[in-house]
Amino acid sequence: xxxxxxxxxxxxxxxxxxxxxxxxxxxxxxxxxxxxxxxxxxxxxxxxxxxxxxxxxxxxxxxxxxxxxxxxxxxxxxxxxxxxxxxxxxxxxxxxxxxxxxxxxxxxxxxxxxxxxxxxxxxxxxxxxxxxxxxxxxxxxxxxxxxxxxxxxxxxxxxxxxxxxxxxxxxxxxxxxxxxxxxxxxxxxxxxxxxxx
Length: 197
Fold this sequence. Notes:
The protein is an alpha/beta fold. Helix content is 21%, strand content 21%. The chain is built from 4 helices and 9 strands; from the N terminus they run αβαβαβαββββββ. The chain has helices at 6-16, 54-62, 90-99, 112-122, and strands at residues 35-41, 71-77, 103-105, 128-130, 141-145, 151-154, 160-163, 168-171, 181-185. A 3-stranded parallel beta sheet has the order 1-2-3. A 3-stranded antiparallel beta sheet has the order 4-8-7, with no helix packed on it. A 3-stranded antiparallel beta sheet has the order 6-5-9, with no helix packed on it. A hairpin with a 5-residue loop joins strand 5 and strand 6 (151-154). The longest helix is centred in the first third of the chain and has 11 residues, at 6-16.
């Protein structure tokens, strides 16, 4: 088809065809295995709501495993504003933001960084950590205690970013080793906001 339907294709492979031609692929009995979808596209997603609406697909993907760390939807697509010969991959990026994962512009000359990050992601290591409450962003403090007991502090901006949409922090360069302890402290936003606002 000349009309790209990445969301519908992923849903078909993981759900609609899971007990027929794709039997055993999803490994539903193995809740510790990762599920990582990677889309490379020079168009936006033209999957229809009758196939699977975006909101339902995001909820479906997020429900495949008990841990958010084991599921991702990664997009290498035209950036917002467009590129190449076609429109931006806005719907793919929307799914990536809702499920978690990486997105990179298709226009980049070098995909080494994003491919390295995808490898890290599927190996079970992670750079993104989710918060349990909405924070006062300026109050965020992040530190990592490595397996040798060394404590490493990190600063918002140069060392990590905060995503309001995902309520998470993401290390920019640093990758915590397995068994390291990541401690994120902050003032809970609800504790300082007038409930009448």
